């Protein structure tokens, strides 16, 4: 099972960063490749079990289920239900932790999934750099203003 892990330091208090990323429907506010997002069936965006349905700027549609959300741990876990990537059993964790020196935030995003072995390197790069690193770089820039 391939695993990807990406992290960064954001020059903002962990609580401020968490308040943005904990909203399961807020991807368009900080991920530059997301055009729009909605939570299905009028559920709350912080309700475990809710489904985020979002459209990428390239037209792709992804549906994800929120599996866990912890304000105490400042983390959320979600699964991809449908995506154009051709992966299965995708589980990801997005987490924020305080960096006490300088009142900053350590943000990490990890995932594991199943895919055909021939596509593993391509998908690790696409998810790690194309999705996670791109989004975390935009998050970092948002708080640098």
Helix and strand composition category: alpha+beta
Radius of gyration: 15 Å
Sheet having the most strands: 7 strands, antiparallel
Average pLDDT figure:
95
Q: Explain this structure to me?
A:
With 145 residues, this protein is of the alpha+beta class. It has one domain (3-144): START domain (Alpha-D-Glucose-1,6-Bisphosphate, Chain A, domain 4, 2-Layer Sandwich). It contains three helices and seven strands, in the order βααββββββα. The longest helix has 25 residues, at 120-144. The radius of gyration is 15 Å and the shape is globular. The N and C termini lie far apart (38 Å).
Task: Outline the secondary-structure elements.
Blueprint lengths: L2 E8 L3 H8 L5 H4 L3 E6 L11 E6 L4 E10 L4 E8 L5 E12 L4 E11 L5 H25 L1
Antiparallel strand pairs: 1-7, 2-3, 3-4, 4-5, 5-6, 6-7
Can you give me a brief rundown of this structure?
This protein has 145 residues and is of the alpha+beta class.
Summarize this structure as a short list of keywords or feature phrases.
7 strands, 3 helices, 42% strand, Alpha-D-Glucose-1,6-Bisphosphate, Chain A, domain 4, alpha+beta, 7-stranded antiparallel beta sheet, 145 residues
């Amino acid at each position: 099972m391939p695993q990807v892990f990406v992290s960064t330091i954001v020059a903002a208090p962990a609580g401020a960063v968490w308040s943005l990323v904990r909203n399961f429907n807020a991807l368009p506010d900080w991920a530059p490749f997301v055009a729009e997002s909605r939570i299905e069936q009028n559920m709350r965006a912080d309700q475990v079990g809710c489904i985020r349905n979002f459209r990428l700027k390239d037209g792709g549609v992804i549906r994800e289920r929120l599996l866990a959300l912890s304000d105490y741990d400042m983390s959320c876990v979600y699964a991809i239900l449908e995506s154009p990537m051709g992966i299965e059993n995708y589980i990801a964790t997005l987490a924020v932790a305080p960096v006490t020196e300088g009142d900053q935030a350590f943000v990490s995003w990890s995932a594991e999934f199943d895919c055909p072995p021939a596509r593993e390197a391509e998908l690790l790069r696409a998810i790690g750099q194309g999705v996670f690193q791109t989004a975390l770089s935009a998050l970092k820039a948002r708080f640098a203003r």
